[in-house]
């Protein structure tokens, strides 16, 4: 195969490399999509292992950064089926989570978002995106039971996993207690609650917003540890909201506090 002509605007130290690619759809170390990849490249905490781009995606690569130039079909095979990569993908070592103390203490005015058993990557990614939009200090995930911050999750987050700190904890209920001891007001969203979310979230203290899994909601012990349980009012025709949508609404309400 004849080598392609040089890319327009190619930097002198820029060195795209053509090479063969094996299918590796199960590799969770990959991030794809323009926004997600550029945010990862801009994060100094990232340890980038490999950057790949098609000719269309190569225009988004920062000047001087080496990458592997591939055909679209090669990139399709490298990533999971239906991955909307926009011609750009990278492999990185996992982002190291912060400790709870590093991420959340001492308390300030910013809220934190706690995910109790939320495992759907699209939902977690969308919540990271909302967290970035509304000034969340950190997203707290349950250790081992939460999805890795790569793949479809990173694509749904549109770069937010590199903009918002995260911590992984073993015990969500105990974490809520610890946050309370540091001055946070914990508010869990629950469909059967009696307090409207707007009222519950107007507390002047920093808010620890707790979101449960979409099918089961908050686990009983986690709900018990929350200082307040609240619901989002909606039309009778609709029983519940998607977990990520509910989180976005609640975070918006927190941001509107005077």
Written description of the protein model:
By secondary structure, this protein is of the alpha/beta class. The protein folds into two domains: 76 residues, no CATH class; 156 residues, SPOUT methyltransferase, trefoil knot domain (Alpha/beta knot, 3-Layer(aba) Sandwich). Helices cover 29% and strands 19% of the residues. The chain has nine helices and twelve strands. The chain has a seven-stranded parallel beta sheet, sandwiched between helices. A five-stranded mixed beta sheet has the order 1-4-3-5-2. Helix 4 runs parallel beside helix 5 and helix 4 packs parallel to helix 9. The protein is elongated. The N terminus is likely disordered.
Entry summary:
By secondary structure, the protein is an alpha/beta fold. The protein contains 9 helices and 12 strands.
Give the key terms:
single chain; 258 residues; alpha/beta; Alpha/beta knot; 2 domains; 9 helices; 19% strand; disordered N terminus
């Amino acid at each position: 195969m004849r080598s392609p002509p040089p890319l327009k605007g190619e930097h002198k130290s820029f060195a795209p490399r053509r090479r063969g690619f094996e299918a590796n759809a199960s590799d969770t170390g990959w991030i794809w999509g323009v926004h997600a990849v550029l945010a990862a490249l801009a994060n100094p905490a990232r340890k980038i292992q490999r950057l790949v781009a098609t000719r269309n995606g190569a225009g988004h690569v920062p000047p001087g950064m080496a990458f592997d130039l591939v055909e679209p079909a090669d990139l399709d095979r490298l990533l999971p089926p239906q991955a909307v990569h926009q011609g750009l993908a990278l492999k990185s070592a996992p982002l190291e989570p912060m400790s709870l103390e590093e991420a959340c203490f001492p308390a300030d005015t910013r809220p934190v978002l706690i995910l109790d058993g939320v495992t759907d990557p699209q939902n977690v990614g969308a919540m990271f995106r909302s967290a970035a939009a509304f000034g969340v200090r950190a997203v707290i995930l349950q250790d081992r039971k939460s999805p890795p911050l790569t793949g479809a999750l990173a694509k749904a987050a549109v770069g937010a996993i590199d903009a918002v700190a995260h911590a992984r904890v073993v015990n969500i209920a105990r974490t809520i207690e610890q946050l309370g001891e540091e001055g946070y007001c914990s508010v869990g969203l629950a469909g059967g609650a009696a307090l409207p979310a707007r009222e519950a979230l107007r507390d002047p203290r920093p808010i620890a917003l707790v979101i449960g899994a979409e099918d089961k909601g908050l686990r009983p012990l986690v709900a018990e540890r929350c200082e307040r349980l609240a619901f989002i009012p909606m039309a009778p025709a609709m029983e519940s909201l998607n977990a990520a949508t509910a989180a976005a609404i609640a975070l918006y309400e927190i941001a509107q506090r005077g």
